[in-house]
Amino acid sequence: MTAVLQKWGNSNGIRIPKQVLIDLNIKVNDKLSIRSVNDEIIIKKENKHKTLEERLTEFYKKPISKIKKLNVEEIDTGNSVGEEIW
User: Fold this and answer.
1) Are 18 and 1 within 8 A, CB to CB?
2) The whole model's pTM is what?
3) CA–CA separation, 52 vs 43, rounded Å?
4) Which of 29, 27, 3 is nearest to 16 (CA)?
5) Number of structural domains, the chain?
6) How do residues 17-73 score in pLDDT, each as one tens digit?
7) How many whole angstroms separate alpha carbon 33 and alpha carbon 35?
8) Domain of residue 57, CATH code
9) Could you tell me the residue range of the domain that residue 9 belongs to?
10) If we measure between CA atoms, which residue out of 31, 35, 26, 57 comes closest to residue 46?
C-alpha cells in the first residue's frame, strides 16, 4: 500500500486507508504517537489509561469477580516515634 505526501494548509499530510484504521482500531480523535527511527516513520495508537479493574482482569485473564481475594490482617506497629505522617 502506498500513500502520497500532500500539502494541507501550512502542513503536510498523508491519508491512511480505511482498512488500516479498522485493522488497528484507530478512530477519529484518537491520540497517536509519531516518531522516526532510522529511515522509517512509526505511528502508534497511544494506550489509554486503564483502570485497576481493567489491569487486574488483563493480568489474571478472568473477570475481577472470579479473582480470589486474599484475607489480610492489619498489623498495628505502635505509635509514631519520629515525624512520620500516616
Assistant:
1) no
2) 0.48
3) 27
4) 3
5) 1
6) 999 999 998 999 998 999 999 999 999 988 778 899 988 998 999 998 898 888 888
7) 7
8) 2.10.260.10
9) 1-70
10) 31
